[in-house]
Amino acid sequence: MRSQFVPLLLNEAAKAARRTLPYFGIFALGLANVVTYFAAGHLTNAATENAWGYVGFSMQMVFSDVGPILIVTFAARLMAEETGTGTIRAALAAPVHRWEFYVAKAVIGLLYMMVFSAAALLFSVALAGIHYRFGPIGDSAGIVYSRNQAMQELLAAYALSWIPLGALVMYGLLISTLIRTTGEAVSVAIATLIVIDLTKHLAGLDPYIFTRHITYPWLNLLQMAHAMDYQWRPEVWKMIELSGVSAVIMFVAGLIIFTREDLNH
Amino acid sequence: MTGHSPALALEDVSKRFGRIQAVNHLSFEVEPGQMCGFLGPNGAGKSTTLYMIPRLVRPGGGRLSVFGVDIWKDYKKAIRSVGVTVESPAFYEYLTGRKNLELAASLLDKVSPREIDQILERIGLAERQHDRVRVYSTGMKQRLGIGRAMLGRPRLLILDEPTNGMDPEGTNEVLSFLREQVRKEGLTVFVSSHLMSEIEEFCDTVLVIDQGRLVASGRVKELLKPHERIVRVTFQGRIPDGDFLSRHGEILRVEPVSGDTVEFTLARDDSAWLNQCLQQAGFTVSALAPKQKTLKEFFLSITGDKSHA
To answer: Does the pLDDT of residue B60 top 90, yes or no?
Structure first.
């Protein structure tokens, strides 16, 4: 029997395209970017003296609060909405394996995260272009990083940012699998995210929580925009390890729970 | 899969939720080309049984098969022959009725837009197909649910309370439509309903479960054979008095129905004997008929007058 994964994914995309949240998310991003733009105008920080610095700064701002909340909200709705409204009963009464359904949900969550972060980057780059230059980065001694090097680092930061954000999607999806009503799933996902972020330092858990790396790739870009000699590659490996392992554990846990649970209520 | 396989077969199926035994070694078969009613009091295990067919609930033991294909061994093959609606049908309310059908159709093999048109026409939603489901009435959603279950031309249709929320006219329309599909297309319909009159009128066979076990099954006509022990008699002139009753110990009870009609409960299935006794005693009988059982009476007699199916 052929896999129903592609039709399922197309169905997920069709459903997402008709919801308000993805569009609201992009709108909220734009708004956050504009606010950041005006805030940056009041800063005398050297980080905002060039476009690379502005992009690093604004992406950090956007992904410190608004971005993760919107991404986790989207992910936390994915399963809970289907179980809460009962549409899952019809979806699984088709020739579809549960794992295919779950994987399609995970992929659509990741796609949304990518579109969302791409939109944030585009907003940021567009606003940066108004006042700043995407030129080479230098200090009083001359050019430290060429324009190409800076561009490569920007793209690397963008790609690396997907890793902790991917883990965030899997976190939302896991909550969505455990809690079967949309409102509760979204509330729990956001609340726990905030509580974890507020308490992880106090409990000494910071090194073990993937959320610490959500803005990390953009911090690297910001440091480079300062013309600093940044030593970030060891930390990048830690980020890949921590976020990757967290994402895989949460995905597998959600998948096992979903494929084994009774869906009679 | 063979040509003689039952449309749906459950063999020794059980399911326990904590301390509650929802389904208890349940076995039955539904023959192809029939409309089979599925009855049981609240909490009898009907919904759990229906949920197990599309694998929404994992059975604790036993085997479920559709046209000979084991649901747990080859789900995709088994479920391709089945259209299911369990509980009240749920839809993506922000999408149109048609888009909901299109999404469901995309997961089936080769359902053409024309087939969707035909289904919308049959369920009477062609004109409202582009409205969002959130503005549909309960009855329209029920019809859309039946339409969705019929996508891909299934050979077995499993419907849970398909006429909930429908007006009598709509109920009759839907059930007549299903009946016609059984007759013309050889479709098998397995339908749970709490409306006994629906099951009685439209189904060929009926299965009754209670406390997770099968307590009765068979053809509706056979299960509802006239009740020879309860006989309704209409008299011309006088009606029997206490003296008559005291002379006939086999008459257990007499209940007046109206001025000239009385219902006798006999100790044995023999209305002819009663007729003879009445004639001999000089009563003029204008009508005498064993009482026809209704499905509701039959159901209550075997499930012990619990609340409805």
So the answer is: yes
Q: Is B263 left (phi over 0), alpha (psi -120 to 50) or beta?
A: beta
Contact B8, B176 (CB under 8 A): no
Looking at the complex, does the CB of residue B79 fall below 8 Å from at least one CB of chain A? yes
Note which residues in 90-129 of chain A have CB less than 8 A from chain B. Answer: 90-98
Residue B253 φ then ψ, to 5°: -155, 150
For the cut 60, the answer to whether the pLDDT of residue A46 exceeds it is no
Q: Which of residues 13-32 of A touch B (CB under 8 A)?
A: 14-15, 18-19
The one-letter amino acid at B138: T
Bridge partners, residue B208, by sequence: B39, B216
CA dist list (Å): B178 to B122, B157, B160, B191, B199: 11, 9, 14, 10, 12
The predicted structure's pLDDT at residue B309: 47
Find which of B29-33, B84-88, B280-284, B287-291 is predicted with most confidence, using mean pLDDT: B29-33
Q: Does B157 touch chain A (CB under 8 A)?
A: no
Q: Do A86 and B82 touch (CB under 8 A)?
A: no
Q: What is the pLDDT of residues B184-238, one digit of tens each?
A: 889 999 999 877 888 888 899 999 999 999 988 888 877 766 666 788 899 988 8
Q: What is the pTM of this model?
A: 0.84
Query: A5-22 b/e with 16+ CB inside 10 Å = b?
Result: bebbbebbeebbeeeeeb
Distance CA B141, CA B130 (A): 14
Residue B161's pLDDT band (boundaries 50, 70, 90)? confident
ipTM above 0.90 for this complex: no
Q: Please report the pLDDT score of residue B4 as a whole number.
A: 77
Task: Tally Cβ neighbours within 10 Å of residue B293.
Answer: 17
Q: Name which of A185-189, A216-220, B91-95, B195-199 the model is least confident about.
A: B195-199
Encode burial over B123-143: b for 16+ CB neighbours within 10 A, e otherwise: bbbeebbeebbeebeebbbbb
What residues of chain A lie within 8 A of the CB of B59, using their CB?
A: none
pLDDT tens digit sequence for A56-109? 989 988 898 889 999 999 999 999 999 999 999 999 999 999 999 999 999 999
- Could you tell me if A259 lies within 8 Å of chain B, comparing CB atoms? no
The answer to whether the beta carbons of residues A147 and A223 sit under 8 Å apart is: no
DSSP state of B80: T
CA–CA separation, B123 and A173 (whole Å): 36
Distance from CA of A12 to the nearest CA of B (A): 9
* B195: closest CA of chain A, how far (Å): 22
Q: Is A260 on the interface with B (CB under 8 A)?
A: yes
Compute the C-alpha angle B249/B251/B254, nearest 5°.
Answer: 135
Residue type (1 letter), B45? G
Kindly report the length of chain B.
Answer: 309
Residue partners of B115: CB distance under 8 A and separation at least 6 = B105, B151, B153
CB contact under 8 A, B54 and A11: no
Q: Residue A109: name the closest of A209, A238, A217, A16 by CA.
A: A16
- Average pLDDT of the residues in B99-108: 95
